């Protein structure tokens, strides 16, 4: 191709300033309508009757219980999923075995299964009418309509986040460093703590932040297994729905504002992590 033809080809592919500005305007408009406007509306509605009314609505027993329960569920499910995610990523990337592709597909299953379906499965497995669930209830350890069921539902929905962040990083790093440490006499645990974990720490933290954000905002699966018992098994998203259906707009939007602030804090931590450790995280987006 001649220089003149190449220049003409490049000129044809380069967008005009008008097209560039139009694309930017469409993107900004979309973000404004779909993201910024709803966020602003949440805080405006929460403060519609003033700060005192918003704070008072968060001070009652049901609201405080919902906030504590949501934080408790995140505090339990996120560390457990971090441990399971590390174990799954280690097993998949450090060993060769038949059925590895199928195992990866199972890890991705919560992304494709509706959370409501996941909740129904937990109810069928651990409900009072099931063999295991009936025995647990008779023993005084109910799963469904109690904290364990909510934790199970949250863990199912958020399970892939940590594993899917770690698997590409550990594949990229290979096995050479761990094999060298084992050859030098290090035990398996020491190899993990001194070699593997430092190499995956930023991807692990990134996955934990994503897992935490989803855990606090999960609604579908939790709504099925919790029973929506006010002050006992109602999380923040469920309490927001209940308050809104009762036409308690200030209370509903105040709770939604708190949940939004928690999500924004998680988002800011995620963004700061991406900015400061972009190279370490780049491997997670190569596969």
Automatic annotation (TrEMBL):
Keywords: Membrane, Sulfate transport, Transmembrane, Transmembrane helix, Transport
CDD domains: TM_PBP2
InterPro entries from the UniProt entry: CysW_permease (IPR011866), MetI-like (IPR000515), MetI-like_sf (IPR035906), Sulph_transpt2 (IPR005667)
Gene3D superfamilies hit by this protein: MetI-like
One GO location term (cellular component): plasma membrane
UniProt domain ABC transmembrane type-1: residue ranges: 67-270
Pfam families: BPD_transp_1 (PF00528)
Predominant cellular place of this UniProt entry's protein: membrane
GO molecular function (one): ABC-type sulfate transporter activity
Listed transmembrane segments: 21-44, 64-91, 103-127, 139-163, 247-269
SUPFAM superfamilies: MetI-like (SSF161098)
Function as written in the Swiss-Prot or TrEMBL entry: Part of the ABC transporter complex CysAWTP (TC 3.A.1.6.1) involved in sulfate/thiosulfate import. Probably responsible for the translocation of the substrate across the membrane.
Subunit details: The complex is composed of two ATP-binding proteins (CysA), two transmembrane proteins (CysT and CysW) and a solute-binding protein (CysP).
Protein name: Sulfate ABC transporter permease subunit CysW
Taxonomic classification: Bacteria, Pseudomonadati, Pseudomonadota, Alphaproteobacteria, Rhodobacterales
Gene name of this polypeptide: cysW
